[in-house]
Task: structure prediction
Amino acid sequence: MASLGAGDLASAVSLPIAVGQTTAWVQATFEQPTTLSALTLGVRERADVEVQASDDGQAFRTLTRAPADRTETTAPQQTYAFAPTTAKLFRVVLTATPPKPPLPDLPAFVSGPGRPPRPSPSPAWTSRPVRG
Result:
């Protein structure tokens, strides 16, 4: 567990999702029941994160579930908080999610080479000097 809990992003543990699979997990096992209430992860690829706990290694309960998406935040790591939970085993399950679709093409309103001219203002918004 030392390499997972070191807090050093340079010595990260890779958790690849196998070809043909959509999930992978990593598990921390403690000799004595241990209480946790948050977990900080650095996830490179878009995925759903689920934190689970178990006392026997057979039945796991979900503590929290949330998306990990580097396009939503610039932070290299995110903290997932949950109610304080005491267990001997904690598991992090990553589920691959498809990439977000690209944004639709938006009209360009900046004039310049290779760009369409900026639309002229509506006649209702045109100002004219008043002559007296």
About this structure: Confidence is low (pLDDT under 50) at residues 122-128. Strands lie at 23-41, 47-54, 61-68, 78-96. DSSP finds no helices and four strands in the chain. The two ends are 85 Å apart (CA to CA).
